[in-house]
Amino acid sequence: MDIQNKENIILLDHPLLKHKITLLRDKRTGTNEFRQLVKEIAVLEGYEALRHLKTELIEVETPIETTKQPMISGKKLCFVPILRAGLGMVEGMLSLVPSAKVGHIGLYRDEVTHEPHEYFCKLPYGIAERETYVLDPMLATGGSACDAVKLLKEKGAKNITFICIIAAPEGVKTFHDAYPDVPLYIGALDRCLNENAYICPGLGDAGDRIFGTLK
Ligand code: PRP
Ligand code: URA
Fold this sequence. Notes:
The protein is α/β, with parallel strands linked by helices. It has helices spanning about 15-25, 30-50, 85-95, 145-155, 170-180, 205-210, and strands at about 10, 55-60, 65-70, 75-85, 100, 105-110, 115-120, 130-135, 140, 160-165, 185-190, 190-195, 200. Strands 1, 4, 5, 6, 7, 8, 9, 10 and 11 form a 9-stranded mixed sheet that branches. Strands 2-3 form a two-stranded antiparallel sheet.
């Protein structure tokens, strides 16, 4: 799939982002550093994904004079991490918009079929009026991403954006075919999936690396 010219697929290419994702991939990167990197990457990706936010002029008194200057208007944002690994991105996003609400969607992939299963969903009130940002470091087959967006739409969310750190081409195609209206921000686009539906070269199991539950 040629994603270069696809509307709503945004492959980010900042050198700082690339550098941090390379550190994340390294199998020698331990839990502590991994968590810190996921947080920093979320800040860099969030900065881009929130670029369109509207501002309004607010009066402010500087030590010199009174002036009208821009502030973000209508801050009705909601961040929705997909449990577990998406949790690692929440703090970074909240450092950009501390007033955002946070919902949670719990999905796990069956180890054999790789199909996602929902086990939790708690969203803030008024989801229909909020800009909703779904957070998950990994977009592999795209099954979890599609299920999360489907669930959000069923609950009334209208303005949805998906932010991932590493994506496989197969998952990007599945997601974009299902939800061409949902902007997809990607930190790195990898080669393919392996026979276990892991991303190659990827970083392994994101949830296990964030929470230190590697076998
Ligand atoms: C991982 C990852 C995504 C999903 C991606 O979660 O965080 O949610 O897999 O794979 P997919 O695109 O093929 O659906 P996992 O199911 O391993 O759960 P965890 O975060 O609790 O480890
Ligand atoms: N989930 C992960 O955490 N890693 C992958 O490579 C694929 C799915």
